[in-house]
Amino acid sequence: MNAPDYGSFLAAKRVAVPEVGIFDPPALNPALFPFQLDAVAWALRQGRAALFFECGLGKTPMQLEWARVIAERTGRPVLILAPLAVSYQTREEGAKFGIEVHIAKDASQVRAGINVTNYERLGKFDPAAFAGVVLDESSILKSYMGATKRALMEAFAATPYRLCCTATPAPNDHMELGNHCEFLGIMSSHEMLARWFINDSMNFGTYRLKGHAVRPFWDWVASWARAAETPADLGYSDEGYILPALSIIPVEVEVDLTVDRGDGQLFRLPEMNATAIHKEKRRTAEARAAALADIVRAEPGEPWLVWTDTDYEARAFRGAFGPLVEVAGPDKPEVKESRLIAFTHGEVPVLLTKPKIAGFGLNWQHCARVVFMGPTFSFESFYQAVRRVWRFGQAREVKVFVAMAPTERHIYSLMTRKAEGHDDMKRELNQAMRRAHAASHPTATYLPQHTARIPQWLRTR
What we know:
This protein is of the alpha/beta class and 461 residues long.
């Protein structure tokens, strides 16, 4: 019996993702840039894939072109699920590229071709009616056990073609990658964890990559996803894709630290639990609101975006600033959409809302001034909220003001550390993308022209 070939043994251990898509697509839309055409053609070949492209790199036209080809090839409709108010932007973007998009609020409004609706309306559709599905801003899969995630997994488990589109997913949270690959039918998140991760003993309930598994893991991700911060990550020129400066400016407000101090303490030292943190934020809300209201009033000709995490922060800012347009949770979906669209079109000078309402998918490059009523433990929420305005297509420096009291400085420091971890994750992902691109786009074809001579001392006698 012949000894097993070690190369074959290693090859068998490698996790490969089969291509189950369209290998002979029709001519793609010439209005797309070369790097976008490359990504769409690759996603069509994969059939089930993810595009993790930075904000402003054109995920919407790419997903529309992918959906157009799927709908035309199969003769069945494709459904795009998008955050609130993004449906209208998707239709407008489609018109720019000559792609017809239907906005559907329920199954009765589905038409041949491409249909787009909001995630909130998922239950009004029959998933079996669609040949393909696109999750626009697929970071909605972040919640590991969330109801929306489970509903999406179950609804489209049998859908032949699936595409996920978002910016770099879940900063510092590899589990979102597991949720993406599970939605795409590539591998369960549990198997992903078992293969490449171990429990992080320093952070209960979290996982970290095994030291020897870092490169293999990201190469596996690159087999079913394409990611890019700029076109250079895919081997193309960055011309036209250099972002303007981003300035994040902490605004520290003065508060009385002797109020509610503990026995024997000179100053108030809030605990790190959620109850204590919210109690402290309530104490400082009016001071933070007053400081930010002055900053917004100082530039009356600028469109301003005001982000709050809580209702009491929103009330504090309204009280300090005066009349403005707000998009709040209790508002009807139609009201939310109309106000968000009005801000998009420059009809609203100051918009007050929350990242969980409008922090995903919307394009507000006309705005370059942002305020946060306070720092947050969720770096992803902060990152996505900033990216509504600091994205490709923004022509001016973006200034972001973050208000905080001295007792909230630790939250800002934690958010900053998470930003550093996010940069590390993006670096690994982008390097894997470059390796995947180099493997599929050889710079030159090898055509041997010379017959080598074996040295005399190597010849057998």
